[in-house]
Amino acid sequence: MDWKNTSVLVTGGASFIGSHLTDALIARGAKVRIVDDLSSGRLENIQEHLASGRVEFIQADLREPGITRAAMKDIQVVFHLAADHGGRGYVDLHQAGPASNLFLDGLVFWEARRAGVEKVVFASSGCVYPNFLQSDPDKEIYLTEDLVKPPYDADNMYGWAKLMAELTLRAYHREYGMKTASCRYFTVYGPRGVENHAVIAMIAKAFIGQNPFEVWGDGTQVRNWTYIDDIVRGTILAAEKIDDGTAVNLGTMERVRVIDAVQMVLEYTGHKAEILFRPDMPVGPLNRVADNSLAKKLLGWEPQVPFREGLKRTIDWYFATKDREQVRRILGRMLTER
Ligand SMILES: NC(=O)c1ccc[n+]([C@@H]2O[C@H](COP(=O)([O-])OP(=O)(O)OC[C@H]3O[C@@H](n4cnc5c(N)ncnc54)[C@H](O)[C@@H]3O)[C@@H](O)[C@H]2O)c1
Questions:
Q1: pTM for this structure?
Q2: Residue 2 falls within a domain, yes or no?
Q3: Residue 41 Cα, ligand 1 centroid: separation in angstroms?
Q4: Fewer Cβ neighbours under 10 Å: the N or C end of the chain?
């Protein structure tokens, strides 16, 4: 697909992932419009494009009357990333906010069809996978896409909304012929990430010298943290290659326990601290790792950044750009908010 002069809407384009996606689309020559209410996104993430005039930016809540309809005007491809979303603390402790994604997503898809948009690509999540498959940290399981089926058992209201959006997009393709694709992101990290997600939280704690160093749960939870550049590349490939609403995992198959990630952070930052486990805090599924063979087959996609390498890049960015006093001020709140 030739992106040159393609008109693209990125909802939530001022976010961590949305802004990196915007960088990549601009680099490919696309014309990008962003709609973001800045409820968790940050203007500084897209500042360069605003200054150069390469991005049209509309600060607005897509749920407000008329906003989504106006946003779709003359758009060929929509990347829908706007969401009421946070990290584990937020997703476990807030149901009402993420529930609004049900109508936000429904509205975006409805208006996209009405406007004759050619393709809608959706930022879905590993949170659509049944919780009951992810409860044993000692099992070596890899989640394949076909495991999302009845009995559905998504991860909090946030996961249910992602699942409903995927099913809606599949139905839109089947019944309305609209081209759609969903990408199931697995715990994304990298520069511009925020402290409500585990890896950035670990880095922030090392940055401010937290001691004892708090780790939620007992540290044996398994994750497959996936680097931002791999996520962006996979999302654009999905836009190019999937039309029928198929949902594809974008995640590495590298299994990393929380405690091992913490040790890597402490080692690389040189921070020495006693570990304090907090079993009273939200831990999420105990074992969540993607199988990425479908992405390999359909998109020719494979993650290229191993966790240790991506972590170093992320720590270097965080230490070079953050202010200790400010991080101390916001960290407590950010761990459970957005
Ligand atoms: N970060 C991850 O690990 C991860 C994993 C799975 C899926 N996702 C999904 O990827 C997308 C981007 O997430 P992220 O982590 O980069 O950051 P994020 O959660 O901050 O992104 C959401 C963006 O949407 C904007 N937004 C929210 N509600 C809006 C509304 N009603 N109208 C307009 N804008 C609105 C926010 O300001 C923000 O910029 C989200 O859909 C998220 O659910 C992220």
A1: 0.98
A2: no
A3: 7
A4: N
